[in-house]
Amino acid sequence: MEKHASKSFISKFSFAMGNLGHAAFYGLLSNWFIVFVTAGLFSELAPAIANKLIALITGLIVVIRIIEILIDPLLGNIVDNTQTRWGKFKPWIIAGNLVSAVILVILFTGIFNLANVNWIAFAVLFVILFITLDVFYSFSDVSYWGMVPALSEDSKERGVYTALGTLTGSIGWNGLTVIVVPVVTYFTYVATGKHTQGAQGWLAFAIIISLLAIACAFIVAWGTEEKDNLIRNAAKQKTTIKDVFLGLAKNDQILWASLAYFMFSFANVVTNGVLYYFFKFVLGKPETFSLAGFIAILVGFMTSPLYPVLNKFIPRKWLFSFGQCCMITSYLIFIFARENMALLVVGLVLFNITFAQLVTVLTLTDAIEYGQLKTGERNEAVVLAVRPMIDKLTGAFSNGIVGYIAIAAGMTGSATAADMTAKNIRTFESMAFYIPLALAVLALLIFLTKVNLTEKKHAAIVEELKDKLAAGDENFGLEAKQAPLTVSETTNVLAPVTGFANALPSKAAPDFDAIGFVITPLDTKVYAPFDGTVRFTFSTKHALGLVADNGLEAVIHVGIDTVKLRGEGFVTYYTDGQAVKAGDLLLEFDPAVIKAAGLSDNVIVFFTQPKRITNLKLDIEREVTHGQLLAQVTIKQG
């Protein structure tokens, strides 16, 4: 037991450490490389040529990043089809980090100062190197997050992995803000004797972060263990850009929530991308820029764990609104009160209260059932693809805007705060604060007026879906993929849980007016009642659909109205599309959590094809142990 606990700790620690370097590297690539390009890469060239190269590079990065979105599904398929003695993910995590790190360091050398010799050759080679870098970084990114289902079968444990990775990722990303100016300045001073941020300092900074990313990649490979038994249906259901946009077009709640998030994300990444310019050129205090990083890390540590606690009492629409109001207030402080350091600190705190991302993830997850009820289609992969796609799009656009701001506001090369004119400051403010402020307001308005998928509405949708399944609605069936039956088939249905079994009277459970049975549980574990496949699962973990090998469809539902718990008190041990055997553990529930909410914990099983059922024998009104024969169900030929 102690050995298992120790192994689990090492695995979680190693996975978390992976995103420390991974996120730091992406921050270097996404934000600070653009700063280096505008501030130090072309300092020895004539300003006219330097500005043309800056515009060219930032434009190319935008185009490359957008194209990368189209090839991500292809990269995912390549990873999924990889078979090595080390698994499918680790080789790409190592190779992706090694190749992308080496190339990024080369780019921070100015491709060995090629721009000063032949800027046309530099531009051509830059395109080739950056595309290669971006592809290999994407390989490592897809592999890192894609390995979570291979590390654990338990949904709760997967959540722990994801939370730890997100936490260390925040440290890696925001930590750059803390160390970038001191590190770059120190190494520039060592090389030149000048206390500034020169090319030599940027190169040293790139080498340090690249080595960190490589070291963290090896830690992931060393300390984690891919499990073979659940790799896995999700990897076979790749999402293309066509799938994503079709999902958006058919589901207005995904569309509106995504649009609101796009506005928020665009504003957030643009402002984050120019904060360094704000401190250096507008405030004239580059040495205080580390303060922004410290504040971001501290606010992240406080707000991320606080969100689920607040959401128990405050609907997520109002948490989104609170976060956006904080963001809007921060922009007003940046514009009108930036000379007051105390207020500036308040502004930085408010800017980093980003509830929008968490709310969007939950809203998109709930939109799965909304779309299923509306169109009869259930596409979970769209939810997994939409938000990362938006992040990449806004990141790409941000890179272009940051480069434009630097050129338009005269914040390139060896310029200092003393060189800034009133026009330069106005140009900077319009792009860095005024436009993002408008986007933040639009995000708030869109979410308040168009996103109506509240927690209560989602609970009602789930119940309506369940009723349609129970009634055998063909548009909402489990869509079993089996050969047509030529004769009637009988399935032995075993008790899924230990307890007292009864019929399913409509008076006792009006929402379950269907063919089936109910068990008042004496245990907390629910097992598969027959051999088959998991074809349907609610995101709230309280219910799942099974298809027997001979085509019988059934839904197991723990409790009545337990959808309101939104997954609290439930732990699942299966994945969509997983084949199961009779007696396999499917889920556990906490009766104390269910009863504390004033709900019943009865385990209900109903069959979703009443028109196909020709005979049903129930051996009920008795105490049963899970695994005992409880029913025989005969379905007619297809």
In short:
With 638 residues, the chain is of the alpha+beta class.
Topology, element by element:
Blueprint: H1 2-41, H2 47-80, H3 90-108, H4 110-113, H5 119-146, H6 148-151, H7 155-192, H8 199-223, H9 241-250, H10 252-282, H11 290-311, H12 316-336, H13 341-351, H14 356-375, H15 380-408, H16 422-450, H17 455-470, E1 489-494, E2 499-503, E3 516-521, E4 525-527, E5 532-537, E6 543-548, E7 553-558, E8 570-572, E9 579-580, E10 585-589, H18 591-596, E11 603-607, E12 613-618, E13 622-624, E14 629-635
Antiparallel strand pairs: 1-14, 2-3, 2-13, 3-11, 4-10, 5-6, 5-9, 6-7, 7-11, 8-10, 12-14
Please characterize this protein's 3D structure.
This protein has 638 residues and is of the alpha+beta class. The protein has 18 helices and 14 strands. The strands form three sheets. The protein has an eight-stranded antiparallel beta sheet with strand order 9-5-6-7-11-3-2-13, with no helix packed on it. It has a three-stranded antiparallel beta sheet with strand order 1-14-12, with no helix packed on it. A three-stranded antiparallel beta sheet has the order 4-10-8. Helix 15 (380-408) packs antiparallel against helix 16. The chain is elongated. The chain starts with a helix and ends with a strand. The relative contact order is 0.10. The model is unreliable at 229-236, 474-486 and 507-513 (pLDDT under 50).
